[in-house]
Structure formats: C-alpha cells, structure tokens
Amino acid sequence: MPAQLNRILLLFIAFIGLFLLVRHFLIPETFGQYGHYRGNSLIENESRELAFADKEDCYACHPDILETLESEMHAGLSCLICHGPGGAHVEDPMIGNIKKESGREFCGRCHDINPARPGDVVFQIDIQNHHTEKSDCIECHNPHALWEVPE
Amino acid sequence: MKSSRRKFIKAAGTAAGALVLSSAVRPFNVLLMAADPPPDEGPWWGIGIDIHKCIGCGLCARGCKVENKVPDEPFYFRTWVEQYAILNNGEIKIESPNGGIDGFKQSIPEEDIFKTFFVPKMCNHCSKSPCTQVCPVGATYESPDGVNLVDETYCIGCGYCVQACPYGCRYIHPVKKVVDKCTLCYHRLKKGLAPACMEVCPTRARIFGDLRDPESEIVQFLRENDYNVLKPHLNTGSKLFYNGLTTEIS
Q1: Which CATH number fits domain B46-124+183-243: 3.30.70.20, 3.30.450.40, 3.40.50.20, 3.60.110.10?
Q2: In DSSP terms, which residues pair with B206 in a beta bridge?
Q3: For A18-48, what is each residue's pLDDT tens digit?
Q4: Nearest Cα residue to A86 out of A54, A114, A41, A126
Q5: How far does Cα B35 stand from its chain's mean position?
Q6: Are the C-beta atoms of B70 and B78 separated by less than 8 Å?
Q7: CA B17/CA B24 separation, integer angstroms
Q8: Handedness of CA B89, B92, B98, B103 (dihedral sign)
C-alpha cells in the first residue's frame, strides 16, 4: 500500500479514536440506562416540589369539617378546590396560605347556567340575578353543609 | 426489459411480505387504540376524560399552573379546556378564553346553538409519540411507566417536538428556554398522589390509572364507556382516552 494511504488510514483511526474518547467523557453516566435518555432525569422529574396537598392531610387535623362535608352534596370534592393548594400549610400549620374562595365569580365557575354544562352533573342557577341584595354566596349557603339555608 | 420487470415484481412482493410479517411482530392493539404496553413490569399509566362529566369550571387548568409553576401568560398551558359549540347552521366554534382558567361565559346566543360541550385537553402521553421520535438529543422520552417526560438539562430548545406534537401540548418555557409539558405530575404520581388537575376536578371527569392492572380505574373506565382517542388515524398510541368523543373534536 502506498505510504500516503497508510498515513490517511492512520489519521482516520486517530480521528475516530479521539471522537470515541471525547464522546465517552461527554455522555452522562446514566444515559442509556433505560433508553435513549438520561436515567437520572426520571429522578429529577420525580423530586420536584409539591404545591397541592392531599385530602388525607386535611383529615389529620380537621376531621370534623370533613365529616360534615362527606355527608353533603360537596362530598368527594377536594378541599383544595376552594381553599387553595395548601402544601405549605400541611408542612407547617402556622403558614396560613389557606384561601376561602367564595362569591358569584368563584361559585359560578361550576354553578352558573351554561348550555355546555351537563345538567345532571351539577346544580345550575342564574347566578348574576340570584338574590342580588346579597354580596356573597356564603352569606346564605354553607359550602360544607349546603342545605342549611337560613330563613 | 422483461427480466427487470420480473425483478421489480419480486422485490415488491418481498417488501409487501416483510410488511405483513412485521405487523405480526408488533400488532395493532385494538383494545387500547394502538397503545402497546412494553413488556415491562410495574404500572403503565393511562388517562381517562369523560366529556359528559366536564362542567367547564377550569379548575384543572388553574390547578396545573399553580402546581407546575406554568407561566401566567394565556398561551402557556399544560392542560386547558375548550368549549365546542355546534351551531344550527353547521358551523363549529371552539373557544378557550385563557385556557378556561377563569371559567366560561356563554358568548353565543343560546338559540343559535345546536349542541355545546366542554373538552379538556392535555398531553396524551402517547406510546409511539411523535415528539419523542423527533428529539435530536434524547431530551424527551417515554419513561418505563408510560409518562412522556422532558430532561430540562439536556433540552436545547430547538422546538422540533413542539411542532411534531399533533395535539399542541408543548411550549417553550419563556424563562428556562427549554420545552415544557405535562408530566402527569410525575412528582405526585411517584408519591402515590393524583395529578393536580385530577385532584381538583370536582366531577371526577378526569381519571388516571394503571393500564396493566385489570382492576384499575382506567381499565374500568374503558370497560364502561365508549372511548376513543384524539386523531386515531395518526397512530400515536395515545393513552388519553375520551368518553363522548365525537367527530367534531380534533
């Protein structure tokens, strides 16, 4: 084989060797552990912080409220719907990031009349014209015990 | 000339035969609309959405933004709700004001509407997902438990996957400059909690479960409902099953 071909061949081998070496150091350790991705990415995705708590956590400290709720129309609803994410409050009960959402705007999300809303799933009312003298729904309706409407 | 035609027919026959054989190796899963569980152990998550139960409160979209710190601007969503209105003149109107986060106000006069309903949308967590196939660096992938995730440290923000997703479920995060999408709240899932959107859904219109477990909620959902997936002709192996999905919905 002519000398110049030998040199080119050598150059090729050196180049491929260098490529493999650089590749070895650049590819993260867990890449390819499960597939064509970095295995540790699963752990990173898993270890993100929670914002929303779990309903079970609410039970631990407020069983009385939940017992009232569970016997009512709103049974099965998560506390977090009206009271906000509450994850920090579960970690430290002194953090009072618990909201009390109410009012025509918020209750209307579910209960305002909308033809797209299936009638058998949720009770609907013309919320803008219902007892306009009252400012807030919870003046009459207790969301934890819905049918206790005062006279 | 003659022999080349013979060659061509032979080659075509071989190719057709190989195609038929290869389809026997990985057959189309009719039960799950082309979603094929890989032969691993452990859960393989699927999602069920009941359109008949969705009341369009938008709490799922709002909860998702809080849980996953999705930017507030009204064009970044991991999940959102659309209101479909089929008018008496046959026109189909689709509305999603701020993704439904602030709830829905009826904008079309009721007498013009033939039919209207809400459709919640989110990542379909496809098992043959187009977004994963186009990623040039292996930054997006299907996890062993069937959740499509993004490796934020690996993503180069090229946006191929955003274009490839036929369901429009991805966006480029304006601050991180990498792609962001629904993780099915992987951080909650692994702790045994429901994803935020399902935790706050007041009518349980959204459910999830292990497709491998015959007793799971999602398998129960598939048994009891007339389910379908979005764009089944694309063969994405979507694992988001809808009850009440009609042909107007895309």
Answers
A1: 3.30.70.20
A2: B49
A3: 999 999 999 988 998 988 999 999 999 999 9
A4: A54
A5: 12
A6: yes
A7: 11
A8: positive
Residue A54 and residue A42 share a domain: no
Separation in Å, CA A38 to CA A28, A44, B33, B144, B154: 7, 10, 29, 13, 8
Q: What is the pLDDT of residues B205-248, one digit of tens each?
A: 999 999 999 999 999 999 999 999 999 999 899 999 999 999 88
| Amino acid at the residue B131 | C
pLDDT in tens, A49-94: 888 888 788 888 888 888 888 777 888 888 889 988 888 888 888 8
DSSP H or E segment with residue B148: strand B148-150
Q: How far apart are CA B128 and CA B146, in angstroms?
A: 10
Range of the domain at A147: 102-151
For an interface test with B, the pick among A38, A109, A112, A123 (most B C-beta atoms closer than 10 Å) comes out as: A109
The CATH number assigned to the domain holding A63 equals 1.10.287
Is the predicted ipTM greater than 0.90, yes or no? no
Q: Do residues A110 and A140 share a domain? A: yes
Q: Rg for chain A (alpha carbons), in Å? A: 31
Interface of B with A in 210-249 (CB under 8 A): none
Q: A-contacting residues of B 149-208, CB under 8 Å?
A: 149-154, 183, 186-188, 190-191, 193, 196, 199-200, 202-204
